[in-house]
Amino acid sequence: MKLSERQRAYWRSNLLLTFCLLLIWFGVTFVAGYYANELNSLQFMGFPLGFYIFAQGSMITYLVIIAIYVTVMNRLDRRYRVK
């Protein structure tokens, strides 16, 4: 099945968005976890930063990632007239 140029552009945009958001997810989930002990030497709102990132910050980041994905995909759907 051949894709039209418009369909290829849509999927290219979709994959780029997904890749960028997965990089953010990976950074918050694994990179911050790897450096949790070092982050705990810093304070945020009276809590060690490593603790705060995993207790609150990661959940907030995940919700923001979802909101960004929904917003951008809705715009892409309108731009490329995808139903």
From TrEMBL:
The chain crosses the membrane at residues 15-37, 49-72. InterPro entries: Na_symporter_ssu. Residues 7-82 form the Sodium symporter small subunit domain. NCBIfam families: Na_symport_sm (TIGR03647). Keywords: Membrane, Transmembrane, Transmembrane helix. Coiled coil: none annotated. It comes from the Bacteria. This is DUF4212 domain-containing protein.
